[in-house]
Write a structure and sequence with these properties.
heterodimer; A: about 350 residues; mainly alpha; two-stranded antiparallel ribbon; 2 strands; about 0% strand; globular; B: about 290 residues; 13 helices
């Protein structure tokens, strides 16, 4: 056990020195800089500046007060100075102030982050595992009965808009069958403790997670089917079969490791879409995460908050891609030794 | 010719084209079949499909005709889908083509920008752009267009990197052709097949994004859209779920048609996939979506 653990750690350490990971870290810095500049541009695109908003809200519009505010927020300086100022603050995790909630943007974001991670994390893990399983089943006999059935279902799941799937799930399982709660993260009418609380939270998680899973399972099933069919035509599979390997043994011990690589790449690619999708799912289900926070911010045109969420989402995407790179190193020995 | 026959020989091509013809037909005939404003109240509210003669799909909670909304909504969906695809194709081909053709520092710079746009959640960026620029069909098309091009840029760059080393390009260089001539006249036409094949997916994504924006209340308030119809119907979720089911099915079926078309195009025109029998989906163009 210990040997295995140290082996894995050693592999990861070996990968950290690897070129791909170093590239990711550079990418992280570039993304941070890029998003802050983009955020700054977006804030500048807004009609009127921050001071106009505050001044109109407070009702005190004397020229002297406005001038003081401009001085306080640095708006009397040049655009270049303001940009550097903004980047400097963003690096210290100071993302500005949300006028809708009356709290610092960073505080709000970190309050809401866990709920989003639970929802998207659950959905991703289930989608990948189930998707790969279904893809492999379909690839066993291309254009056979199982494949046709699964491919049809996958194409349907892939075509339905997510907000619509969410609402239809609510109609069927929440309103008509009354099996599951249709919104929120926990039942506020009954005080649950311990195991009961966990169970209640899980019940609230089912429908929002299922909405994301119905779509992403289709994505990963389609992809792993295609990848598996391609892998099964490779020479090393023919060799494994020629050596007398039973069909399932060849699939699980030879083909799967190779076929799952594109799925990993897709996992990294889809992560930014997943965060976008969580806006819709969280809004529909009243799930108190980043997505719902963004929606609140949209409704009140709280651009400070919106660009803060944008920055954090971009960072999350790069981090997830870093994890994907590390997994790549574990699964595919070729990327470990190629320096 | 063989490829075209191969394309039409697939059931997915048949059903895909059929669904698209229905959507385009609805869009084209909307003004003729339903001449009034689809946002006008024309009957009693909350009429279930089939309950009132003259309104086969019923009315919404404001007494607006759902069938008229469906026909007029098709115009918005297809207009946004088509325009966004055009913007994404132009930007993607320009950026990807220049990066792939010149290589070196220009390539690295353009690809860093592309990667950046793939890292920032596209839908969130589109939402922010629409919110800042105030929602209208033009701003929606702009916002979705400037967030949709990266997959096309990567695809084009890949094609250009391979094609620029081919003999017919070297021959043109030898007779002194300009960079612009090489990019647009020599290489681009040869790179167009995979790009055009992935266009169906681009349109599908744009339609889904527009629907999601409208559903969230960021649509153009002056036109009826399938997404905003679902958004309105949401308020009557408990009693009148048909208000969600009807426009939602329209979105799902149109997108299904485009996805089927995309699959059929891939199998027919992508030689790599045709050789490997049955593989079917090209992972590189499975763009982000909602």
């Amino acid at each position: 056990m210990l040997q295995m653990t140290s082996g894995i750690v050693g592999r990861i350490a070996g990968r950290i020195a690897g070129r791909r990971v170093r590239r990711r870290l550079i990418q992280l810095v570039l993304v941070l800089l890029g998003t802050t500049v983009l955020n700054f541009v977006l804030l500048k695109l807004m009609p009127g500046d921050l001071v106009d908003v505050i001044a109109s809200e407070s009702g005190n519009v004397s020229p002297q007060y406005v001038a003081e505010l401009r001085e306080a927020y640095g708006l009397n300086h040049s655009v270049a100075w303001q940009l550097l100022h903004y980047v400097g603050h963003a690096l210290r995790l100071d993302l500005g102030f949300s006028f809708r909630f009356g709290e610092p943007v960073a505080t709000l974001i970190f309050e809401r982050l866990p709920a989003t991670l639970v929802l998207t994390g659950t959905a991703l893990v289930i989608s990948v595992l189930l998707g790969v399983l279904l893809g492999v089943l379909a690839a066993r006999r291309p254009h056979g009965f199982v494949d046709t059935l699964l491919s049809t279902l996958a194409t349907l799941g892939y075509s339905a808009p997510m907000f619509w799937t969410a609402l239809m799930l609510i109609v069927v399982f929440g309103v008509h069958l009354e099996w599951l709660p249709i919104g929120g993260i926990v039942d506020t009418n009954i005080a649950h403790h311990g195991f009961g609380l966990l169970l209640d939270r899980l019940r609230h998680l089912v429908l929002p997670a299922a909405t994301l899973v119905l779509y992403y399972v289709a994505v990963f099933a389609r992809l792993s089917r295609a990848s598996m069919i391609e892998t099964l035509q490779e020479d090393f599979i023919r060799t494994a079969r020629a050596k007398g390997g039973r069909p399932w043994y060849v699939v699980t011990h030879h083909a799967l490791r190779h076929a799952v690589l594109p799925v990993l790449t897709m996992l990294g690619l889809q992560s930014s879409a997943l965060l976008g999708g969580s806006i819709i799912v969280e809004t529909v289900f009243g799930w108190p995460g980043l997505g719902q926070l963004s929606f609140e911010a949209i409704k009140s045109r709280d651009v400070n908050l919106l660009v803060g969420v944008l920055l954090l989402s971009a960072v999350l995407v790069v981090v997830l891609n870093l994890v994907v790179d590390l997994l790549y190193g574990l699964i595919d020995p070729r990327t470990r030794h190629r320096q | 010719m063989k490829k075209i026959l191969h394309f039409f020989g697939q059931p997915s091509a048949f059903f895909g084209v059929l669904l698209l013809v229905l959507a385009v037909g609805a869009a084209l005939s909307a003004n003729w079949l339903f001449p009034g404003d689809p946002l006008d109240m024309v009957a009693a509210p909350y009429q279930w499909p089939g309950a009132t003669s003259g309104f086969p799909l019923g009315t919404d909670l404001m007494g607006r005709d759902l069938l008229a909304g469906l026909f007029h909504g098709a115009r918005v969906s297809l207009y946004v889908g088509g325009s966004v695809a055009v913007i994404a194709l132009v930007l993607g081909i320009l950026i990807g083509g220049i990066a792939g053709y010149f290589g070196g520092l220009i390539d690295q710079l353009l690809m860093a920008i592309t990667e950046f746009f793939q890292t920032v959640p596209p839908f969130l960026l589109a939402i922010i752009l629409v919110a800042i620029l105030t929602p209208s069909l033009t701003t929606i098309v702009f916002a979705l267009g400037v967030t949709a091009w990266p997959s096309i840029a990567r695809l084009t760059r890949g094609e250009f990197i391979v094609l620029r080393e081919r003999e017919f390009v070297s021959a043109s260089v030898a007779i002194g052709a300009s960079d612009a001539h090489l990019i647009f006249i020599e290489i681009l036409p040869n790179a167009m097949t995979p790009i055009l094949v992935s266009t169906a997916l681009l349109v599908a994504n744009a339609i889904l994004s527009e629907a999601a924006l409208s559903f969230l209340g960021l649509g153009d308030p002056n036109v009826v859209s399938w997404g905003s119809m679902v958004g309105t119907g949401r308020e009557a979720l408990r009693t009148a779920w048909y208000m969600i089911a009807v426009p939602g099915s329209a979105i799902a079926l149109t997108v299904l048609g485009l996805n089927l078309l995309s699959d059929a195009l891939h199998t027919a025109f992508n030689p790599r996939l045709r050789r490997k029998r049955g593989a079917g989906v090209a992972p590189d163009v499975q763009a982000v979506r909602l």
